[in-house]
Amino acid sequence: MSHRPDTGDFLDIFLNDIPLIDTRAPVEFEKGALPTSVSLPLMTNDERAQVGTCYKQKGQQAAIELGHSLVCGEVKEKRVSAWVDFAERNPQGYLYCWRGGLRSQTCQQWMHEAGCDYPRISGGYKAMRQYLLHEFEQICAHQPLLLLAGKTGCNKTDMINEFSYSVDLEGLAHHRGSSFGRLPGGQPTQLNFENALAIDLLKAKHSQAVAAGAPILLEDEGRLVGRCALPPELQHAMELSPLVVLEVSLEERVEHSFHNYILDKLVKWQRALGEEEGFEAFADDLVQSLYRVRKRLGGVRYREAAELMERALERHRKGDPEMHWDWILGLLVDYYDPMYDYQLRNRKGRIEFTGNREEVREYLAAKDV
């Protein structure tokens, strides 16, 4: 493997999805990391804690000696082997620790001794995170945005993903956005969501369409996508941005919601948990999702919807999912549509274009040069 220098070219790393070794402890990685990184730590959480305590009590040199005594012999060989294996499979990659200091230097040295020269990220995770925060703030302050709006069930997400100058907020949050949007596998940590969001905004900014003058296209979302919060800077920018409104018939929206929140979602749960357990998790998810909106629905409408859902799930267990259409229709008409109409009336002056699916697609495609 030819020797490559350490790098601080963060733009190249993020635009080109460069593979990265995160050598920090697992607890640090779990809190927040980068989308293309894998956790191959120098020390376990417990080893890191011991070294940290030693550093505070006895100083750096004693901490270094303790670290070397904890990670030695077969333990060291196994970890070095994992780094070298990653490097051989990803010759364009880099390794990093928290600040580009002792941990990544140690990993780099041990890899060199094993015959593998692999470069580090200058400044480590902290420097990359600071770079992303700066770029994110600049984009929110200066880059024009365009929001795709439309009633629940319009399938805005698929349209968003048709264009090179877009960012899929729901995809990044691993959530479909509505009260019923939870997906198996859970959501990323807030830091991971923010990192991935900043990177995708950076990619959109450097796309050919945005370079030629197109805005960055986002779905019209509220403050939260599931439990992932849009950073305040982006919320503010979106509140000032123009809207393109997608209009779709009620029948088509019910059909899309049925496929998206019932058929497709059940498949995801069953893939994750197996047929029977997956169905029960899917059913419980629907029931809990409806319960979360009970106050806005009101007591009478909530009880009616809950009864329809219960009957639909009974039929679904026997192989017939079609009864879900009834409660989906009622929820769209009685809950989602009035809320959407109210919100849109308050933003009428920001509407740039309104049309059906083909008209909106043609309008947005004209910007995607």
Biggest sheet strand line-up: 5-6-4-9-10
> Which sheet architecture does the biggest sheet show?
5 strands, parallel
Tell me what portion of residues adopts beta-strand conformation: 5-15%
- The chain-level structural class is alpha/beta
End-to-end gap: 39 Å
User: What is the global morphology?
Assistant: globular
Query: Number of folding domains?
Result: 3
Mean pLDDT: 94
H/E series: HEHEHHHEHHEHEHHHEEEHEHHHHHEH
Please count the beta strands (DSSP E, at least 2 residues each): 10
- Helical run tally: 18
How would you summarize what this structure contains?
This protein is of the alpha/beta class and 369 residues long.
What do these coordinates show?
The chain is of the alpha/beta class and 369 residues long. The chain has three domains: 10-127, Oxidized Rhodanese, domain 1; 130-247 and 353-365, no CATH class; 251-338, no CATH class. Helix content is 59%, strand content 9%. It has helices spanning 10-15, 26-31, 45-58, 60-70, 73-89, 102-113, 124-142, 156-160, 169-173, 190-205, 208-211, 232-239, 250-273, 275-292, 294-297, 299-317, 324-345, 357-365, and strands spanning 20-22, 37-39, 94-96, 145-150, 166-167, 216-219, 224-225, 228-229, 243-246, 351-355. The strands form three sheets. The protein has a five-stranded parallel beta sheet. Helix 16 (299-317) runs antiparallel to helix 17. The radius of gyration is 25 Å and the shape is globular. It starts with 9 loop residues before the first helix and ends with a helix.
